[in-house]
Specification:
The chain has about 60 residues and is α+β, with helices and mostly antiparallel strands. The chain contains three helices and two strands. About 50% of the residues lie in helices and about 15% in strands. The protein is globular, with a radius of gyration of 12 Å.
């Protein structure tokens, strides 16, 4: 079960992945849940990106609204 803050982080990553400052605890929870993964960029930096499971979760929640 995601906390409200973790869920909000997932939503922000979907809409603006390069503009989100990630809380390490939130990132760890999303990585553990396999909702995001870390992508290594050519610059050597890492960026969080939503996985297929993460997209599925967000789509399911959108249908509930």
């Amino acid at each position: 079960m995601l906390s409200p803050h973790e869920f909000a982080t997932l939503m922000l990553l979907k809409d603006a992945p390069d503009q989100v400052e990630l809380n390490r605890a939130d990132l760890d929870a999303l990585l553990e849940s396999q909702l995001v993964r870390l992508q290594r960029l050519a610059s050597g930096h890492q960026r969080a990106e939503i996985t297929v499971n993460g997209h599925s979760l967000l789509e399911a929640v959108a249908r509930i609204r």
